[in-house]
């Protein structure tokens, strides 16, 4: 598994949830559900701006479940999925000076749009460098920091929990982007001490467009007030749909993490000819980065699709994605490592086993070889 192409950087994957712990987490979620729902309420949902509450009662119950489960004071369901959750939290948090401390790395594309729209005055510091982060926090310039839980750069190594703790110790509050991390890692941002976690429930098999902010009441309550209009709210049936989906997600993601590890190990062992290198990375979702011996990465997803793979994501973890995903690196990863565009793909098994993933890759590379020879 060697060639002369640009090598993958060393990666620092986030910890995963072992299957036994995922089962316990699933059971704990249902215990939270039982505290906030009577049985029949799980089969009915209401709509609209309920007097005295300002949102559907079902939505409020689901929010209470999520706050309880994640150990937070409050939660609010929002439209716009993960991006909408981040936008709502930042819009509430940023004061008149709009200062925000962020990691020095390519910003996730939709987050960049939010930061520009809000007029955020960002200062980028390398969170991998604890001394640099400490100096920035000690400057007294920042009331808020924004932390992306999963990796923005392929070789990011900072511990999100340690980063949040450093911010807290300096009196700097934190908003954590927990997309691709919530229920995939042992603890999300708010469980690590952040003021808020923002993530998409669509990426956790929920309905399209639903996101959540879980955290401090002084962040969540203003979002409730700002989304008072019925047309901008998450209705009861959407909230209940999202909650039902969450009940099987912990175990499902634990199994997916196991398969991803197996795929990377078997590729590293040389099981598929034409693969130069494989690494696990949290490049958005946890996946296997696969560097090929030949520069065919741009063509491979279309060939893999003929053998049953998905060639593009829907929500990178949505209910629609069951086939293994063979896809290019993310836009932010390519901004950081453009030299990998022709040689590297990311492979996410989704609901598939390692045997199918490797067979699709083997047949796809063989098909590209025949085309080249022809």
What does this structure look like?
The chain is globular and about 70 Å long. The protein is of the alpha/beta class. Strands 1-7-6-5-4 form a 5-stranded mixed β-sheet, sandwiched between helices. Strands 8-9-11-10 form a 4-stranded antiparallel β-sheet. The protein is built from 12 helices and 11 strands.
Q: What's the end-to-end separation, in Å? A: 25 Å
Poorly predicted regions:
none
Number of DSSP-assigned strands: 11
Please report which band the strand proportion falls in: under 5%, 5-15%, 15-25%, 25-35%, 35-45% or over 45%.
Answer: 15-25%
Radius of gyration: 21 Å
Largest sheet: 5 strands, mixed
- Give the spatial strand order of the biggest sheet: 1-7-6-5-4
- Silhouette: globular
The helix-and-strand class reads: alpha/beta
Share of helix, binned: 25-40%
Average pLDDT across residues? 95
| Helix and strand run | HHEHEHEHEHEEEHHHEEHEHEH
Oligomer: single chain
Number of helices: 12
Question: How do the strands and helices of this protein lay out in sequence?
Answer:
Blueprint: H1 19-36, H2 57-69, E1 74-79, H3 81-93, E2 99-103, H4 109-118, E3 121-125, H5 130-138, E4 144-148, H6 160-169, E5 173-177, E6 196-200, E7 210-215, H7 217-226, H8 236-246, H9 249-268, E8 275-283, E9 285-292, H10 300-305, E10 325-327, H11 331-336, E11 344-348, H12 354-373
Parallel strand pairs: 2-3, 4-5, 5-6
Antiparallel strand pairs: 1-7, 6-7, 8-9, 9-11, 10-11
Helix pairs in contact: 1-2, 1-9, 2-8, 3-4, 3-7, 9-12
């Amino acid at each position: 598994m060697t060639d002369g192409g640009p090598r993958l950087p060393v990666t620092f994957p986030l910890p995963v949830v072992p299957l036994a712990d995922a089962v316990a987490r699933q059971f704990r979620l249902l215990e939270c559900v039982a505290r906030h729902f009577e049985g029949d309420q799980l089969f009915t949902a209401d709509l609209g701006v309920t007097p005295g509450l300002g949102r559907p009662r079902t939505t409020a119950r689901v929010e209470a479940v999520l706050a309880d489960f994640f150990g937070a004071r409050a939660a609010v369901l929002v439209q716009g999925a993960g991006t909408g959750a981040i936008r709502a939290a930042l819009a509430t948090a940023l004061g008149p000076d709009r200062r925000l401390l962020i990691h020095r790395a390519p910003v996730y594309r939709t987050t960049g749009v939010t930061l520009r729209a809000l007029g955020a005055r960002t200062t980028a510091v390398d969170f991998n460098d604890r001394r640099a982060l400490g100096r920035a926090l000690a400057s007294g310039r920042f009331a808020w920091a924004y932390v992306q839980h999963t990796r923005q750069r392929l070789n990011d190594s900072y511990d999100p929990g340690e980063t949040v703790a450093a911010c807290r110790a300096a009196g700097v509050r934190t908003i954590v982007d927990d997309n691709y991390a919530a229920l995939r890692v042992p603890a999300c941002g708010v469980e690590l001490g952040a003021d808020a976690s923002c993530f998409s429930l669509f990426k956790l098999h929920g309905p399209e467009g639903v996101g959540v902010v879980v955290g401090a009441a002084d962040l969540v309550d203003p979002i409730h007030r700002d989304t008072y209009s019925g047309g901008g709210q998450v209705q009861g049936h959407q909230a209940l749909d999202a909650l039902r989906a969450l009940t099987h997600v912990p175990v499902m993601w634990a199994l997916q993490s196991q398969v991803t590890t197996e795929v990377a190990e078997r590729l590293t062992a040389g099981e598929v000819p034409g693969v130069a290198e494989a690494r696990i990375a949290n490049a958005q979702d946890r996946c296997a980065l696969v560097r090929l011996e030949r520069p065919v990465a741009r063509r491979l997803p279309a060939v893999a699709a003929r053998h049953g793979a998905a060639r593009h994501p829907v929500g990178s973890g949505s209910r629609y994605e069951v086939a293994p995903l063979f896809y290019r690196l993310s836009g932010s990863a390519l901004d950081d490592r453009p030299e990998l565009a022709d040689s590297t793909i990311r492979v996410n098994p989704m609901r598939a086993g390692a045997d199918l993933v490797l067979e699709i890759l083997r047949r796809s590379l063989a098909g590209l070889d025949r085309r080249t020879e022809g």
